[in-house]
Amino acid sequence: MRLEKVERILKRNHNAVFTTFRGSGAAQMSIVTVGIVNGGVAFTVSPGSAKLANLRRNSRCSLMVSRSDWGDYAVLEGYAQILSPGVTSIESLRLALREIYSSASGKEHPDWEEFDQAVKKDRRSAIIVVPEHIYYGNSG
């Protein structure tokens, strides 16, 4: 799916609202810092997060990116791919986490070895939201 407008929004604001679903069906929303990775929008999570637990039960999710003034926005609906320690190969996860960092921050990390050790110690997972549907709006 084409992400050109999403990329334009993310050039100015990398924060997004991510929605997963609790076991009860209720929405659980979080603010995440995202970047474009592998045809989706990605971010990282710690192992104890509610969003990761929810995604492991049901990978259906939504992600809203918007300008910082909430003007133009895009909502991605689809499923999350989860890349986690112990499930994903060490090298694939390491490269994905690096790519997410670069895309979400708009820069390279000053010390990739330090970064690799920190995310490994924290047991971070990579979440890639692959949209089935995207809709756009303007609140103005």
Describe it.
This protein has 140 residues and is of the alpha+beta class. The chain has one domain (4-138): Roll (Pnp Oxidase, Chain A), CATH 2.30.110. Helix content is 30%, strand content 40%. It is built from four helices and seven strands. It has helices at 4-10, 50-57, 90-105, 112-122, and strands at 15-21, 27-33, 35-37, 40-45, 60-66, 72-83, 125-138. A seven-stranded antiparallel sheet has the order 2-1-5-6-7-4-3, with helices on both faces. A hairpin with a 2-residue loop joins strand 3 (35-37) and strand 4. It is globular. It starts with a helix and ends with a strand.
Short description:
It is built from four helices and seven strands. It is an alpha+beta fold and 140 residues long.
Helix-strand blueprint:
Layout (H helix, E strand, L loop, with lengths): L3 H7 L4 E7 L5 E7 L1 E3 L2 E6 L4 H8 L2 E7 L5 E12 L6 H16 L6 H11 L2 E14 L2
Antiparallel strand pairs: 1-2, 1-5, 3-4, 4-7, 5-6, 6-7
